[in-house]
Design goal:
- The complex is a heterodimer of chains A (119) and B (111).
- In chain A, strand 7 and strand 8 (75-79) form a beta hairpin.
- Chain A has strands at 5-7, 10-13, 19-24, 31-37, 44-50, 53-57, 65-68, 75-79, 88-95, 109-110, 114-118.
- The mean pLDDT of chain A is 91.
- Chain A has 119 residues and is mostly beta strands.
- Helix content of chain A is 0%, strand content 47%.
- Chain A starts with a strand and ends with a strand.
- Helix content of chain B is 0%, strand content 60%.
- Chain B has strands spanning 4-7, 10-14, 19-25, 32-38, 44-51, 56-59, 62-67, 72-77, 86-95, 98-101, 105-110.
- In chain B, strands 2, 4, 5, 9, 10 and 11 form a six-stranded mixed β-sheet that branches. Chain B has a five-stranded antiparallel β-sheet with strand order 1-3-8-7-6, with no helix packed on it.
- Chain B starts with a strand and ends with a strand.
- The mean pLDDT of chain B is 95.
- The chains are: A mainly beta (119), B mainly beta (111).
- Chains A and B meet through strand 5 and strand 10 of A and strand 4, strand 5, strand 9 and strand 10 of B.
Amino acid sequence: DTGVSQNPRHKITKRGQNVTFRCDPISEHNRLYWYRQTLGQGPEFLTYFQNEAQLEKSRLLSDRFSAERPKGSFSTLEIQRTEQGDSAMYLCASSFNLIGTGESTGELFFGEGSRLTVL
Amino acid sequence: KQEVTQIPAALSVPEGENLVLNCSFTDSAIYNLQWFRQDPGKGLTSLLLIQSSQREQTSGRLNASLDKSSGRSTLYIAASQPGDSATYLCAVNTGGFKTIFGAGTRLFVKA
């Protein structure tokens, strides 16, 4: 297992274009998270999946953002009609959590991130 | 609402010095606390995870402590090296899916 994998690592796009990021979590992990990080700040939560179910979305996730985890394995984060304010590092993390406890007991493991620059 | 603060925001030390990074949180009802390292333009690397029932964790030259009652955690780095230069982030899990991050401490170790 090579850890959490994200691609592309860098994406430069023009305002108004759509972009999609992919995350492959650690294979035995049942939870997958998306975070956004801007310069000089800590990561901010966007959304998370328990297996294939998207269970929570942050207010930061406008309706231009959509995330999927179709088979409970890899996930995609799509941003439609990008704006300059979307420029950030998009981080994916995964963890293993005991089913039924409703609690996050697992250690978070992050990927290398996907840096988005919107011109 | 849980808030996580890290002090100092930046730190520069000579090689070989022992140092302490501080993390404070406003709500003591946490599930665990995790310390991460982040190199410029990279993702986060997990350093240490302390469960709420634990007081400290150690890994090599790193030692992290947790005092829930006072809302504090410290990351102690012994015999610092230039390769330790990075941003160190503290993250508090408040239960369920929520993990709240501090803004980090940028560490520079001078050779």
